[in-house]
Amino acid sequence: MKLLTGNELGSGAVTWWTGSGWSIHVEDAVDVGEGGESILHAEEGARRVNAPYIIDAIPTPEGPRPAHIKDRVRALGPTVRPDLTLKPADPAAGDWII
Amino acid sequence: MYKYDNYDQAIVDARVAEFRDQVNRRMAGEITEDQFKPLRLMNGLYLQLHAYMLRVAIPYGTLDSRQMRMLAHIARKYDRDYGHFTTRQNIQYNWIKLEECADLLEELASVEMHAIQTSGNCIRNISSDQYAGAAADEVADPRPWAELLRQWSTFHPEFSYLPRKFKIAVIASPEDRAAMRLHDIGLELVKQDGELGARVFVGGGMGRTPMIAPEINPFVKADDLLSYIEACLRVYNRYGRRDNIYKARIKILVHEIGADEYRRQVAEEFAHVKTLGIDPPLAELERISAFFAAPAFDAADVEPDRSDPDFAVWLDQNVKPHKQAGYAIVNISLKPIGGIPGDASSAQIDVMADLAEKYSFDELRVTHAQNIVLPHVAKRDLYTVWQALREADLANANLDLISDIIACPGLDYCSLANARSIPIAQKIATRFADAERQRDVGELKLKISGCINACGHHHAGHIGILGVDKKGVENYQLTLGGSGAEDVSIGKITGPGFDEDGIVDAVEKAVEKYRELREGDERFVDTYRRVGMDPFKEAIYG
Ligand code: HEM
Ligand code: SF4
């Protein structure tokens, strides 16, 4: 599957395209198939996302898993500061990255 | 400490106002990201893996307690309560919001600080010896020279679009604590027949093609120095490889045409530049030097009471001799075992600011090894300072030991990374947590970069580690025998790379081999140089 991701313009936060808008949770991301480019241009033009790009991901029961480790780090947060990730209460969350 | 005059303040304030306008236009959609990116980079603002990252310049690594407190305030108000001190003696914040960045820079400007020229193909923050003004072995204080170069290079119109970024270091001691010869230009102040001048080295650097800068001139007189450096930059600006980003640094130019030809061209250009009269009058250098006058040292020369054994260990490891009797240089390690090298919390930054104000004539330094220095502490105050540091988890007695690791942000933060650096540093430090074992191993500079850009100086590590991407999996190469000090050298790769646990084991095997082979008081790197790679290779790959 293919996901569309980027950063919020004002806050810089990592965001994922949900089909109707943007979410900071990769679990909400949807497969954009071959339609990513046109969504990307429209959303970037409207400044609802900054520096967007399309990535490969693998569907799993828990939600999409980005194919590249860099995007998994982006999806969760720094592995060395679990307290600053999106899942601060789950000490094992970092295992998902590796 | 240098103090801004009205002109300095005016240009920094004007820059904040200009950037505020640029941010507003970006937020309003009047300019695109392609148009805005070079503008934000000129103000130190990157977009990294999780958010915007801001790099703040700390000129030649020197700051006062008011500035240090501002760094803590910024971490608290605009970031997530911490900052990362870097190998270029700067600080980086990892979670900055574009919407708030102009306010942040305005607060920063109120304490004579900024983020200008911390990115882009311009002359970056000048780095220097963290012991400047305190070191017993310096021939002069390098900071007035670093400050002069800062003023000369700030908004230098001719050098705002160089072929590539440009880094200058100035030292004034035979002992090199600033990796001087791994800079685009390295200056070592020296005296010849009582006259002050500089040895000039050009074309050093790390990155994908590490090179040690050759000496281009053994002695440039003080009043010719700016003209000479101007000439060095001009030759580079004209002939540097703008066609290929991987060959665009000055080291490639000097290497390709050769040091002799480069020297000849610089001499020719210098003869011309000298007619332009850009060297400042001696009075200006004297004006700048006055800001760096030695503080009013008056403490009696008393030896500290060593009866507390933990204090005595810290004293031996982290405290260095000062040129003034009665005083000492205190190194504050930002490398707690298992911690993140170079990170400090707002509260810790405040503690260091308070200690500087009370006990170090209001001065602090950032080191290229990502530690902090209190340069002028009276010996009678050392125990008090140590106790306060210990309270704040800042009293690690590991300076220059294997757990005093330099590590770049790596894949935990950096968008260019191949692999994570910080977890490797944490695992190695934890493996060698035993304080006695570390001290027995002695001086060992371990440096880790998450990609070939070498921000973590791995080429210059006695032991260096480089993160590479092996089909999407993190992998680590090991190098031995590098040094960033006066015995400068570039490390050599041991062989095939390792996974995360494998690299920690490999480091331990190399260290144990050294303990077995060392003679007398040889350091790790001395033994390596004597016996060569083979015994280590055998121990590691066996
Ligand atoms: C996280 C954002 C960072 C980015 C995007 C970044 C980018 C780069 C790049 C592209 C290079 C290679 C440039 C070249 O060879 O022309 C480089 C080199 C370097 N960076 Fe960084 N860097 C970052 C963080 C840091 C940090 C945190 C430090 C200090 C710990 C640092 C210090 C250096 C040093 C010392 C070099 C080597 C310069 C040389 O080649 O001589 N950088 N960086
Ligand atoms: S060495 Fe590479 S991974 Fe590390 S900070 Fe520099 S660019 Fe990023």
Automatic annotation (TrEMBL), chain A:
Pfam families: DUF2849 (PF11011). It comes from the Bacteria. InterPro entries: DUF2849. This is DUF2849 domain-containing protein. It comes from Sphingorhabdus profundilacus.
From TrEMBL, chain B:
It comes from the Bacteria. The keyword Chaperone does not apply. InterPro entries: NIR_SIR_4Fe-4S, NiRdtase/SiRdtase_haem-b_fer, Nit/Sulf_reduc_fer-like_dom_sf, NO2/SO3_Rdtase_4Fe4S_dom, NO2/SO3_Rdtase_4Fe4S_sf. Gene3D superfamilies: Sulfite Reductase Hemoprotein, domain 1 (3.30.413.10), Sulfite Reductase Hemoprotein,Domain 2 (3.90.480.10). Residues 119-272, 404-540 form the Nitrite/sulphite reductase 4Fe-4S domain. Residues 52-110, 340-392 form the Nitrite/Sulfite reductase ferredoxin-like domain. One of its GO terms (molecular function) is heme binding. Keywords: 4Fe-4S, Heme, Iron, Iron-sulfur, Metal-binding, Oxidoreductase. This is Nitrite/sulfite reductase.
